[in-house]
Amino acid sequence: MAVADGRDEPRRSRGVTRNTNTNPENTNMALIGSFNATQVAPQQDIGPIPAGEYAAQIIDSDVKPTQRGDGNYAELTYEVIDGEFKGRKVWLRLNLDNPNQKAVEIAQRQLSAICHVTGVMQINDTQQLHYKPHVIRVEYVKADGVNSQKDSNAVKAWKKLDGSKPVAAPAPAAAAPAASNVAPPWARSTAA
Description:
By secondary structure, the protein is mainly beta. It has a domain at 52-159: CATH 2.40.50. 9% of the residues lie in helices and 29% in strands. It contains 1 helix and 8 strands; from the N terminus they run ββββββαββ. It has one helix at residues 101-118, and strands at 11-13, 16-18, 30-31, 52-65, 72-80, 89-97, 134-141, 152-159. The strands form 2 sheets. It has a 5-stranded antiparallel β-sheet, with helices on one face. A 3-stranded antiparallel β-sheet has the order 1-2-3, with no helix packed on it. The protein starts with 10 loop residues before the first strand and ends in a 33-residue tail after the last strand.
């Protein structure tokens, strides 16, 4: 970037210095300081985790527009908190604002299950669900080449950490029958 006196100054961003030399004989490069690859394990191919049940918690959430722009979905980021896949992430999208009413109903049932297993029964912000451990059942979804180009995971069920499933709220009690002026059979007079 040019400074007031016209000389070039290297850009700095998050510890990386970009060489802004415009000489075509020199190649632009990011100067990252000293890095020794023998001290860091190489990145492994991180594909979806196997299907199964995992202790997990929501660590992040965001509302994003749908691909068509005609609604919004809440994207919840789950992190596995125990076992072989500890630290791995799985994402869940809840179509809470969508022209497809069936998609909204499914998302509302999923959100209700999450609320029940986390013990947060009324929310107005998805952050209220963060860092509340519970169990998720994850399925492995093969890429179909049309809707998805890569294999992925889908969260399909929720349980409390103790293994109990979310329980629906009890139905409201039936209204008491209306009072009647007719006496019960044992109180009626036999004389007519």
